[in-house]
Amino acid sequence: MFLLYRRLPSFARTTTTTLLCKSMEPAITATSSSSFGGGSSRLAALAQQLRQYKPPPSSSFDDSEEMQTDQETAGKVVSQVGFQESIAPLSKDPDRFKPKRAAVLICLFEGDDGDLRVILTKRSSKLSTHSGEVSLPGGKAEEDDKDDGMTATREAEEEIGLDPSLVDVVTSLEPFLSKHLLRVIPVIGILRDKNKFNPIPNPGEVEAVFDAPLEMFLKDENRRSEEREWMGEKYLIHYFDYRTGDKDYMIWGLTAGILIRAASVTYERPPAFIEQCPKFKYPKMVEKHTCMP
């Protein structure tokens, strides 16, 4: 297994019943890798497959839905769903609820055993939010970012030293809404040559860089869930336990939700467990297809 781990020197949708697909590989057809800049034919075919994926188009609420939703309810949703800690209630001023944009990079590469793997980080324990948690490289969009792909790859370079020229951005997934009012766009990119990437964690943000098999987020193994309820709607938060070398990691919440979706799109099959996302009513400033894990 190609391991990216490195220590620092000092320091939502409705309930879905799913079935396990017999195939253990993404449903892709091999094509020439000549247009993929040196990647394997399998990665070239995967890139071609993922480029054809398009997230649902944006749509607005109709008047009846807008009438049913108020800012106080919205505050409860954002403060409770998918997270163990809460934030202060939101103001009824609609402009204060409008989420800021962010992007994360789901960087896939081919492991030594031929499996698809994704690059993950363990956040620094010194950070004020989500310290010590596993996450995907990414962050808030800046004015100079031309698109979400640029945001995701720029942040990955700043956090773990991943040169954007090594990554082919192939598609974006549906947005997720984070607890801190960030509208997070998951961007899928493919690392053509894993040997050219030498992780350099930013000491202020990242404690460790490692990788995990993408398919694990479709399997009902080393997974547990916690059921919660909001306004009569029950939903699940998923936790994946992962061990690499002598290190144990827990991947959960927003990161787990994004990776479940990314794996489903990549392997073109649903997970082998019930996701059970609630039917939330979103404020009119948030698009309906935004997922809240």
From TrEMBL:
Chain positions covered by the region annotation Disordered: 51-72, 129-151
Cofactor(s), by name: Mn(2+); Mg(2+)
GO MF term set: coenzyme A diphosphatase activity; guanosine-3',5'-bis(diphosphate) 3'-diphosphatase activity; metal ion binding
Entry superkingdom: Eukaryota
Keywords: Hydrolase, Magnesium, Manganese, Metal-binding
A Gene Ontology cellular-component term: cytoplasm
UniProt cross-references to InterPro entries, sorted A to Z: CoAse (IPR045121), NUDIX_hydrolase-like_dom_sf (IPR015797), Nudix_hydrolase_AtNUDT22 (IPR030674), NUDIX_hydrolase_dom (IPR000086)
Domain spans labelled Nudix hydrolase: 99-255
UniProt name for this protein: NUDIX hydrolase-like domain superfamily
Short name of one Pfam family: NUDIX
GO terms, biological process: acyl-CoA metabolic process; coenzyme A biosynthetic process; coenzyme A catabolic process
